[in-house]
Specification:
With 393 residues, the chain is α/β, with parallel strands linked by helices. The chain has 14 helices and ten strands. The strands form two sheets. Strands 1-8-7-6-9-10 form a six-stranded mixed β-sheet. The longest helix is centred in the last third of the chain and has 20 residues.
């Protein structure tokens, strides 16, 4: 079954109550009039540069004080600014150029769900920007237990210049943002993973040199944060998104329809298919994620493994994709039995690989570790942009 979603009407962008962003485009349209002798009137390059600089400054200034909760809240121009800033910060770090733009400031990192990449990225990025961090794990605060989300937000906002949250429902991080007077950054919720998206987009752009027109296929369970977020990211940036899985694991229809409307304005497309051959044919990016979250009962593992095994990323999938196709994964991945969980999966379910084969994971097409590194650079860009980038930068 292949279901291609037609384009709809228009893009909607949510806005932070603390700061509003002008809906500006980097595209500057200039009408050139011709004389009777059909000689074009040329506009000096410096005028183009000045106009582009003004647009960039408007986008840059519009991000200060904003929350970073989901990509649906941002225009494609704003997302591009995040990516450009991340690339610049990455280059500066490689050259040893300090960017301690927020020296003396501090950020709170709330982790109701633990993580390697997200925690390390926020801590290193904050340090590079000159800031201190306080890590609050599930036992390190009273959030949601003895103290409400609203009260927690107001307490932390009085001590810190920014708050990161990684945990469960989107409504939690939304409520933190509602009551916080400082920027709140979403490190992951059940519904969205926006910092991962910036890292993915930067990694794809580094590999291919562009984003618009890239064909990305996501295989596996597309109902939650990764499937949702990749579909949104592709719609925003004019990319072609395919969810390749059984219909049971398609993204929620309401979000599909919202992305469908965005696609109308960006040239993107949204396709949902159960057919592996059709879904991966000539794809530029093959993406997957774990099929089951830790802590879910054995019956869920049994069900997912049975239903999603046809959508495992293997050599045949990569061969069916475009010759330059890359493999991406937000990590961690179950591609071998060299971990405690990997061994348990093998013992319980008799498989040594789950969502991706070790052959693909370790192949030259795999760019998962470049992707992981870019988590730090893009998270640094998010913090820098929402706290303010110096005028000279």
């Amino acid at each position: 079954m292949i279901k291609e979603i037609p384009a709809a009407d228009c893009e909607g962008a949510g806005r932070k109550h603390k700061a509003q962003s002008n809906l500006l485009s980097y595209t500057i349209v200039i009408h050139i009039k011709y004389s009777e002798r059909r000689r074009a009137a040329f506009i000096p390059q410096r005028n183009w540069d000045l106009a582009a600089s003004k647009v960039m400054n408007s986008v840059k200034n519009g991000l200060v004080g904003r929350d970073f909760l989901k990509l649906l809240d941002f225009t494609s121009e704003e997302i591009t600014y995040f990516l450009d800033l991340a690339a610049d910060l990455k280059e500066k770090k490689k050259k040893g150029i300090l960017t301690e733009w927020h020296k003396g400031k501090n950020v709170a990192l709330i982790f109701e769900k633990t993580s390697t990449r997200t925690r390390c990225s926020f801590e290193v990025a904050a340090h590079d920007l000159g800031m201190g961090t306080t890590y609050l794990d599930p036992t390190g605060s009273q959030i949601g237990k003895k103290e409400s989300i609203a009260d927690t937000a107001r307490v932390l906002a009085g001590m810190y210049e920014g708050i990161e949250y990684r945990g469960y429902g989107q409504e939690i991080v939304d409520e933190l943002a509602k009551y916080s007077k400082v920027p709140v950054w979403n490190g992951l919720t059940n519904e969205f993973h926006p910092t991962q998206m910036l890292a993915d987009l930067l990694t794809i752009r580094e590999r291919f040199g562009y984003l618009k027109g890239i064909r990305l296929t996501y295989m596996g369970d597309a109902r939650y944060n990764m499937g949702n977020s990749l579909m949104v990211a592709c719609a925003k940036m004019g990319m072609h998104f395919t969810a390749c899985t059984t219909e049971k694991y398609f993204p929620e229809q309401s979000l599909v329809e919202e992305c469908e409307k965005i696609a109308q304005t960006t040239g993107a497309s949204i396709t949902l298919t159960e057919d592996v051959d059709a879904g991966t044919k000539d794809a530029d990016v093959i993406y997957t994620d774990v099929w089951v979250s830790m802590g879910e009962p054995d019956e869920v593992w049994t069900e997912r493994i049975k239903e999603l095994s046809p959508y495992r990323v293997d050599a045949e999938v990569m061969k069916n994709a475009s010759p330059q196709a890359v493999f991406m994964h937000c990590l961690p991945a179950f591609h071998d039995v060299k971990t405690k969980i990997g061994k348990e999966i093998e013992e319980k379910f008799g498989i040594a690989e789950m969502e991706v084969t070790d052959e693909v994971f370790e192949s030259p097409a795999s760019i998962v570790f470049e992707e992981a590194e870019n988590r730090m650079h893009t998270i640094k860009a998010v913090m820098a942009a929402t706290l303010g980038v110096p005028e000279q930068e």
